[in-house]
């Protein structure tokens, strides 16, 4: 059985997957239910089936499940998994954070399906040991505030269980838009998300909590998602396309890296080498005169230029295909002068490091640049 796709799988071809907000995915779900007449119960059962299929593929020898359910639709997905596993002969334990009778709508329906099939539900007990594969069906994408103490206790139990963990839609405790941890979060080995990829699975702290990520569309057509504006994409794998045998360096662009203020030569040197390794045909570095004579040592392909004022930068800007500015740039008058010159032109620009710190002081806006902030610069 082939899963829809698994991100981080080295066998995948380079693909930019669209990322959506929780609000957008809810809108897609509304369109599917109201306009395409796809019942919500059908979507919930499809979600549980997709998760159970992923579980079987990831842990084919597993025969025990411990399912932790909350009080919303994410719990409903968990009850569908529990019912399917029980029907398949698994030994299933379900622990609920609420009386199942307090569930509503489709979640209550699938919970009763599980109970009618002979399943049992026990109240959450922090002393009860998780067994087999743990299924996190506690919170899903609806969480937008710090965890309640009882949910934090359940998450702590899951994390210290030492068992493999499958999270449904998003690891509980992780904000599905920002990727921030709201107090604590489940550390999953596999996350099966539904309808579309949520941005919070790839930003903030998410990398330490999601494990491998599988997405199931639940048969919601692509035409529904095409109505939503894509503001971010996740590139699963980068690779250089095959190049013709007759190719030469002039065919693959010219990167100009601007930076390396006094005492900060390392960052600009690393950026230049990175550009070469990524396949740039030519790489020039504009830096302080004091650095220009030694930056190319050990990497003679780098063309290093000592620049003291923006007028000297113009010929390099004219030759460049793309500009990288900021590594080791500093924030003095020299840095500001070069930044202003770089941003004044019409070349595609990647702004990093001190370029972002300078822009925070003197904001500008362009539609064709890429910014690469770390958390401090983003703040």
The low-confidence runs, each spanning 5 or more residues with pLDDT under 50, are 1-5, 8-13
Give the overall silhouette.
elongated
What characterizes the major β-sheet? Answer: 8 strands, mixed
Number of DSSP helices? 12
> What radius of gyration results from the CA coordinates?
26 Å
Provide the helix percentage.
Answer: 25-40%
* Beta-strand segment tally: 16
| Strand order, sheet with most strands | 1-9-8-7-6-3-4-5
Give the H and E element order: EEHHEHEHEEHEEEHEEHEHEHEHEHEH
Helix/strand class? alpha/beta
- The overall average pLDDT, rounded, is 91
Beta-strand level of the residues, as a percent range?
Answer: 15-25%
Distance between the termini: 44 Å
Descriptive keywords:
single chain; disordered N terminus; alpha/beta; six-stranded parallel sheet; 12 helices; about 375 residues
Model description:
Helix 3 packs parallel to helix 4 (105-116) and helix 9 runs parallel beside helix 10 (333-344). The strands form three sheets. This protein has an eight-stranded mixed β-sheet with strand order 1-9-8-7-6-3-4-5, with helices on one face. Strands 13-12-11-14-15-16 form a six-stranded parallel β-sheet, with helices on both faces. The two termini are 44 Å apart. It is α/β, with parallel strands linked by helices and 379 residues long. Mean pLDDT is 91; it is low at 1-5 and 8-13. It has helices at 22-35, 40-58, 73-87, 105-116, 149-160, 222-225, 265-277, 289-292, 310-319, 333-344, 354-361, 375-378; strands spanning 6-7, 16-19, 64-69, 91-96, 121-123, 133-137, 165-168, 190-194, 212-216, 232-235, 254-258, 282-287, 303-306, 322-325, 348-351, 369-371. It is built from twelve helices and 16 strands. The relative contact order is 0.11. It is 34% helix and 18% strand.
């Amino acid at each position: 059985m082939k899963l829809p796709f698994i991100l981080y799988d080295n066998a995948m071809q380079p693909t930019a997957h669209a990322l959506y907000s929780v609000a957008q995915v809810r809108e897609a779900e509304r369109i599917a239910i109201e306009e395409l007449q796809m019942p919500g119960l059908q979507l919930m059962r499809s979600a549980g089936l997709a998760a159970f299929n992923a579980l079987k593929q990831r842990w084919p020898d597993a025969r025990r499940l411990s399912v932790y359910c909350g009080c919303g639709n994410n719990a409903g997905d968990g009850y569908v998994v529990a019912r399917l596993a029980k029907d398949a002969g698994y030994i299933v334990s379900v622990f609920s954070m609420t009386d199942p009778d307090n569930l509503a709508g489709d979640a209550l329906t699938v919970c009763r399906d599980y109970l009618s099939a002979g399943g049992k539900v026990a109240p959450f007990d922090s002393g009860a040991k998780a067994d087999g594969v743990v299924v996190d069906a506690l919170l899903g994408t609806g969480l937008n505030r710090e965890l309640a103490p009882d949910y934090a206790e359940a998450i702590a139990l899951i994390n210290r269980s030492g068992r493999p963990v499958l999270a449904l839609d998003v690891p509980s405790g992780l904000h599905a838009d920002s990727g921030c941890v709201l107090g604590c979060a489940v550390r999953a080995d596999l996350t099966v998300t539904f309808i579309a990829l949520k941005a919070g699975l790839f930003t903030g702290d998410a990398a330490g909590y999601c494990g491998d990520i599988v997405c199931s569309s639940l048969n919601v057509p692509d035409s529904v998602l095409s109505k939503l504006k894509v503001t971010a994409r996740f590139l699963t794998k980068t690779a250089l396309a095959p190049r013709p045998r007759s190719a030469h360096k002039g065919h693959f662009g010219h990167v100009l890296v601007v930076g390396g203020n006094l005492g900060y030569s390392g960052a600009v040197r690393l950026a230049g080498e990175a550009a070469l390794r990524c396949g740039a045909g030519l790489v020039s570095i504009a830096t302080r005169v004091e650095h220009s004579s030694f930056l190319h040592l050990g990497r003679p392909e780098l063309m290093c230029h000592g620049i003291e004022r923006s007028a000297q930068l113009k010929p390099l800007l004219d030759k460049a295909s793309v500009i990288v500015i900021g590594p080791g740039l500093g924030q003095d008058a020299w840095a500001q002068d070069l930044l202003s010159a770089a941003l004044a032109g019409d070349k595609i620009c990647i702004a990093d490091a001190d370029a972002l710190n300078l822009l925070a002081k003197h904001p500008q806006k362009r539609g064709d640049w890429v910014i690469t902030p770390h958390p401090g610069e983003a703040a």
